[in-house]
Structures are given as C-alpha cells and as structure tokens.
Amino acid sequence: xxxxxxxxxxxxxxxxxxxxxxxxxxxxxxxxxxxxxxxxxxxxxxxxxxxxxxxxxxxxxxxxxxxxxxxxxxxxxxxxxxxxxxxxxxxxxxxxxxxxxxxxxxxxxxxxxx
Amino acid sequence: xxxxxxxxxxxxxxxxxxxxxxxxxxxxxxxxxxxxxxxxxxxxxxxxxxxxxxxxxxxxxxxxxxxxxxxxxxxxxxxxxxxxxxxxxxxxxxxxxxxxxxxxxxxxxxxxxxx
Lengths: 114, 115
Hints:
The complex is a heterodimer. Chain A contains no helices and eleven strands. Chain A has strands at 4-7, 10-13, 19-25, 31-38, 42-51, 54-57, 65-66, 76-78, 87-94, 104-105, 109-113. The mean pLDDT of chain B is 93. Chain A binds chain B through residues 31, 33, 35, 40-45, 48, 50, 58, 88, 90, 92, 94, 96, 99-103, 105, 107-108, 110, and chain B through 4, 6, 9, 32-33, 35, 42-45, 47, 50, 52, 91, 93, 95, 97, 99, 101-103, 105-108.
C-alpha cells in the first residue's frame, strides 16, 4: 500500500529535550516536505527537500532541522523544543518531474511541548 | 508570494442539501494548481478535488464540484447531497506548476452536517 508513515503519532515532551519525528514514504517520491498545522493558520511549510541531500527552508523553519540522506526518509528534528512548537505536524511527499501539484500526506504527529 | 483566503471559519448544512465553501487566492503566476483537501476528525489530509489553472472547465468529482473563476481568483467548492461523512475541516490550497512544489493553504472551513 502506497503511504507516508510518520512516527510518533503523539508525543508529549518538555522544553529543551531534543526529539525527532520520522517520516518515511514507499512511493519512490523525490519531493518531501514538512508542514505544521495551527488553529486559524492552516498548514504552513517548515522545510522541504527536492531530492536526496537537497533541502531548503519553507515559511517557518526556525527551531527545526531536517536531513535527507535517503530518498524514502525525511526526519524532522527539534534540537531544543519550546512550547510554541506545540502543533500538529504533517509530512508529505510527491513526484517532481511531470507533477500535477498533488502531495500525499502522512497521518500527522501531535506534539505537545510543556 | 501567494496567499489563500478562506473567509468562512465555520459552515453548516442540512443532510442532503447543498453547500458552497469559498476560497480566494492571490498570485502573479499564470500556471498553477488549486486543491481542496478534507480533514476529518482522524486528521488525515484527503484530496477532494484538483483544478489546473489552464483548464477552463470546472473540475467535478462525484458530489463535489468547483467554481473556478480565474480572473476573479476565486475557487469555491460545492458539495451536493451532503452526507454526515462530509463533516470535516476543508482546506483550499494553491501551488505553482514550477519546481518549488510548495502548497500554500488557507486557514480552513469547519463544515458541520446536520441530520
């Protein structure tokens, strides 16, 4: 089954404790991206990757890091989480060449930073 | 920069009736895609319908259709014969046809379906 898998789905942590949210896709997509969803703001892009070893900032990159060492994986790293990073996070993937704009989303990761 | 505006934070519709969700966008590009995504309580983002800007014909998917007005930069979603399972948050989204691939989302409309 074609899918984007995120882990963990739910996480409660404390300020300053480093954490990683993993994302993996099995569709051989070149493009991957992270979004955060906050009430009244919709989804906003954090980082994206056009291909392996190629990453770039989205609209709200502060406080986040990413890496793309393999095509299928695109982890989101919070080195020192703060309460304003409490949010619902989505990973998404898609093709590059010949794309029709569509992205495939994971099921979301609910993060709470105390 | 592109912006997407959904001016209706909440909407409600009676089961079996028709409802229209509004969306406007702002862009200087001529080639782009527009989407409506549905987010039920499960939080999964589900693609409802897609429209290519170069196509004049409005997209339709079963009970879902759009009214795409390119000059007015308007992209509304019509849901016919509303069902209880249509209750969800609906997001309008925009992306250019270029290489950036970024989806720009509106703030969402929470749709309630009344039995």
